[in-house]
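Listing 4. Sequential folding, example run.
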Amino acid sequence: MAGNLAYAELKDARREGKPAKDNKDLSGRIAGNYRVLELIGEGGFGKTYKGEHIILKEPVCIKHAAYISQNDERILIEEARTMWDLRHYGIPAMRDLVKIDENLALIMSYIPGPTLEKIIEKAEKLDAENVAWIAERSLNVLKYLHYNGVIHGDVKPQNIIIQPESHGVVLVDFGLASVKPKNSTKSRGYTPYFSSPEQIRGDTLIPESDFYSLGMTMIYALGGDIATKGIPSQTPEEFSSFIKRLIVRDPISRPNWEKEDLVETLQSIREKSFGRRHSYMKPLPSTER
């Protein structure tokens, strides 16, 4: 568990030149048609709040981008425009883009449920079959995003929300995403341990960069050592081999959508490793203290 314990100490690594952080809490403020209710998270991008539509009283997620530079703000607007029409059950829907105290705030659908990080903090690790269905659903989301030219750029336990009752997975936080990147497009930051070598170098993100991050996330969820890429020995051999294919250093040597449908591959591995393609609502550990 050494790698997992190290991860608990980490903060997102971002490019330099960002505005200094502050301790201001926006709870109670009005932003356009939305009321800020409570702080639910904070990262290198800014602070995230739960809010509600003033008239409809429907919950929303308000991501206040207080810690980004003016150049990043321009990029953020372009990304929001591109993602405006993306619709998938595994990503939050974009609702609005407003300003709070001269900083942009993204209004998105509110996604209930614990993050994979929170589940592992409580349970320490998940059995391989649970990790397999979480990975399969995550790949389904990535398949949709990649088809639409979006590289998430920050797949990690903190950004995967689990919905245990429906066995659903929602991928959140597109602060490091690249939209239809060109060869000259550089990555804007990374998370230690989970980001691919090319992303850490600042190179252009490609779909295979997300595969690497998902593979490292799977190791984390299994209770392996993310510092050494150590996969627990009790992990079924075919499932372990699948993870290893995702985390090779050379991105060209990783799987790609043109040659292989990774969702179908993982379904077949689930059948061979666990005797079934579906987990039949296998329960996850509770996150309640």
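-- end of first protein; second protein begins --
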Amino acid sequence: MEKLSPQFLATCRRNNGRLLRGEQMTRIETFVDAAFAFAFTMLVISIDQIPRSPAELIELSRDIPSFVFSALILGSIWMAHATWSETFGLRDRLTIFLSLLLVILVLIFVYPIKLIMQTTVEFFAVNRDLEFFYTGLFESPGWSGAEASVIFEYVSVGLILLSAILIAFYQNALRFGEELSITDDEHRYCVTNSLIWGVVAVTATASFVIANLFAESNIQFAGFIYFSLLITISLVTAMYSKFVP
């Protein structure tokens, strides 16, 4: 890759200390965006039927929280890729390969993500007497503790792979640091986000271990551990900012 010219860099807009080298969308970025848009449609509350009565509308509305939470997860993944692409604008073979892997992974794990969110909402609805959001999910076949652990294992593997792919994006940008004329702020951006997704991968690994080792009656802790991300991500980023000014 040839080093970007000073003339080109001078024309790039800045956003939060980052030069936007990739504002011109390419076919691979358009493809990734289209894949994420399709994944969002797979999360839609009622993709195969239209409510024909107030009762049916209420019944479908019970799925709104799991749809919102699933969409937020997918949205955060899309935003991470979009911001990275906009900042560095890389078009090398590794970027294309990683983008294709990201699309494949998202389309494979979109339903497990939705199911884990439905499980979470159902758990709190049952234990907090939130009758409106109670769907009777746990009354359907296949919801013993041993079988439920498969969901946590499935999602854990997906998050570990996803984190590895996103970390690879940031490290690939650092690999072309000289050619891209990466600034100190952009270097910190790559390292910080690599640490964030590293924390996600470690947490997903812990969830996988819990799902395999804990008793069936305590299988919910394989899901509860993800709430620790609210603390661990902030703690890791704060520590990095403190020791690497």
